[in-house]
Amino acid sequence: MSVRSHRKHTVGITDTTLRDAHQSTLATRLRTDDMKHLAEGIDLVGFHSVEVWGGATFDVATRFLGEDPWDRIRKLKGIFKKTPLQMLLRGQNLVGYRNYPDDVVRAFVESSASCGIDIFRIFDALNDERNFEVAMKTVKALGKHAQATLCYSTTERRLGGPIYTIDYYVKKALTLQDMGADSLCVKDMAGLIAPYDAYDLVKALKAAVKIPVQLHTHYTSGMASMSYLKGIEAGVDVVDTALAPLALRSSQPAVEPLVVALEGSERETGLDLALLLELDQELEGLLHNYREFLDTTRVSVIDTQVLAHQIPGGMISNLVSQLKEAGALDRLEEVYAELPRTRKELGYPPLVTPTSQIVGIQAVQNVLFGRYKMISQEVKDYVYGLYGHPPAPIDPEVQKLVLKGYPRGEAPITTRAADSLEPELEKAKEAVKHISTKLEDALTYALYPTTGMRFLRWKYGLEEMPQEVKSIGREKPARAAEKPAEKPAARAPGLRPFHVYVGDEYFRVEVAPAGSPPTPAPAVPPCLPAELPAEEEEVPAEAQKAVDIVAPMPGIVIHYEVKPGDEVKEGDGIVVFEAMKMQIVLSTPSPGVVKSVNFKPGDKTAKGDILAVIACE
User: Fold this and answer.
1) Half-sphere exposure (CA, 13 Å, Cβ side) for 568?
2) Binning pLDDT at 50, 70 and 90, where does residue 509 land?
3) Helix, strand, coil: what percent of the chain each, to 5?
4) d(CA 500, CA 484)
5) pTM
6) Cα dihedral 591, 593, 595, 601 sign
7) Phi/psi zone of residue 519: left (φ > 0), alpha (ψ -120 to 50 degrees), beta?
């Protein structure tokens, strides 16, 4: 498909306000109705394209907003009459956190195109071109625009080193061009590309490939606007920006200053500045109800630590949000320090979804529970090769530890990851047929079986949507300035909890006395005798010893591996638990009999909730 043409030398602008900008700054919480208020004006600006879908928008819409992401595209397509709509597609990962089989990939791309997507920006987190094949062929067969994307990353402070060199990117670009890419994007998700590196890389790519080259970066480190100017000087065809209220921080550079900076030059954008300023005011008014999602942990609007930890913009806002939920925001700096070490051990993958989640959450678990004491299913799949081939070898000791007892085998595969996957689409249709026969609903379930099914039950009125979901982005009633009615009990000896209000934000803070030792990471205790009852009470013998399987952090119950009455051995899996979008199996430390399971699949749990009880032998 052809996209908007430009006068010779004019630089095109892709607007990210309705996708990556709010994903990076507001944890992807912007609602469709608020997008519709802006859409007509954005369509008139003259953008090369508008990114409106993909990335985390699908997951967040169903999981946190109670909105149908397919309806979002249809509604926006009905408003955008001039500007092509664009989405971010994670190759074989689609908009999820694992590789999906080929039948699901084809059906997802076809449905996305029929809903209104014109340009598919396709990337793979490992830059493994094998993971582009099916998605790109499907896009091309539909007559849509396939933009192949290279994830920009480094192992040094600047471009170079043993892996990520100009030669590395040029060779990858030529491969993707030969596969049929209509254009090429360099995707710098962490804001790492320095201005002169941007110039050198764009210059080399423009000399090597015949297709247009686009540059995408984030403002996180503070270098993005400078890098865009050098990239434009080197001949880049298109760059990504956002409207000012959702720009900067960990988002993209603001479009308005770039329009003025280039005005009168041979690369001027031709965009309507007056209309952009009107849209800024409208957007400011809409964002009042989303302030709770802004990262307020720093005064600075840039994070120079990104040059070390390399966390992409969207991951930063989600990481802060998740650590808040886990009651561990005070350990953010420890996580930042752990990330580079974990990334090196896992083969230096570029930190973009899903590898940013895989590496990031493993780093969090290493900090909270001890290094590799808790390993998610996604980390195991990654090390086995189900996400593709990493840029560098995985640490042998970590590989051995992670794959110990892995059901598929303890030796990683070297073939295309999806070749190891069985078709899933028909199973998904079967799973939802009692609710819906729509292909879109089956795809929602295929991508997210637990949260997707929960959303479908909300959508079709089979289950009440929680008020906390309905209220996100809505006008909230004023809160009375009063003290909490009751102090919650301390979770651990020596810790005292306090309720703290900072502006419109609420925190529950646990404070230990000065000089007290650090609180150990939560762990499932071995079976111990229960507290002795009063003499007059008679407690059955089977209740004398028990072990609680406890949620280590806020999360969702995916499913139980056992049922009440089942006998279990030490180390047997009890419950598959999702925390921070990664799945872990919680096991029993002692043999016994399952006394109770206290939740059902899809239930949200708080840190410390008792998920199951094992009566010890």
Assistant:
1) 32
2) very low
3) 40, 15, 45
4) 10
5) 0.78
6) positive
7) beta
Q: Which uninterrupted H or E stretch holds 15?
A: strand 12-15
Q: Any bridge partners for residue 182, and if so which?
A: none
- The CA distance from 394 to 126, in Å, is 13
SS3 for 180-225 is CCCEEEEECCCCCCCHHHHHHHHHHHHHHCCCCEEEECCCCCCCHH
The residue whose two tokens read 């896009």 is 139
- CB neighbours of 570 closer than 8 A, spacing ≥ 6? 588, 589, 590, 591
Running DSSP on this structure, what letter comes out for residue 329? Answer: G
Burial class, 7, CB count within 10 angstroms (exposed 0-12 / middle 13-18 / buried 19+): exposed
Ordered strands of the 573-579 beta sheet? 582-587, 573-579, 555-560, 604-605
Interatomic CA distance for residues 90 and 442, integer angstroms: 19
- The answer to whether 262 and 268 are in contact (CB under 8 A) is yes
Average pLDDT of the segment spanning 12-16: 98
To which residue do tokens 């407690």 refer? 539
pLDDT the model gives residue 424: 97
Judge whether residue 36 has pLDDT over 50: yes
H-state helical runs in 61-189: 69-79, 102-115, 133-141, 166-178
Q: Note the pLDDT tens digit of each residue in 394-433.
A: 999 999 999 999 999 999 999 999 999 999 999 999 999 9
Above 90 in pLDDT, residue 297?
A: no
Give the pLDDT confidence of 118-170 residue by residue, as tens digits. Answer: 999 999 999 999 999 999 999 999 999 999 999 999 888 889 888 999 999 99
Whether the CB-CB separation of 295 and 317 falls below 8 Å is answered with yes
State the DSSP code for 464.
P
- Taking the C-alpha atoms of residue 407 and residue 91, their distance in angstroms, rounded to an integer, is 25
CA–CA gap between residue 254 and residue 247 (Å, rounded): 5
What SS3 class is residue 46? coil
Contact assessment for residue 245 and residue 277, using Cβ atoms and an 8 Å cutoff: no
Q: Classify the C-alpha dihedral 394-395-396-398 as positive or negative.
A: negative
Q: How confident is the model at residue 582 (pLDDT cuts 50, 70, 90)?
A: confident
Nearest to 151 by CA among 224, 216, 67, 235: 216
Average pLDDT of the segment spanning 432-457: 96
DSSP state of 512: P
pLDDT at 100: 96
- Between CA 402 and CA 567 the distance in angstroms is 26
Q: Residue 477, Cβ neighbours under 10 Å: how many?
A: 6
Work out the mean pLDDT of the chain and round it to a whole number: 86
d(CA 112, CA 135): 12
- Alpha helix (H) ranges present in 46-90? 57-60, 69-79
Tokens 């109770």 sit on residue: 596
For residue 92 the two structure tokens come to: 């074989």
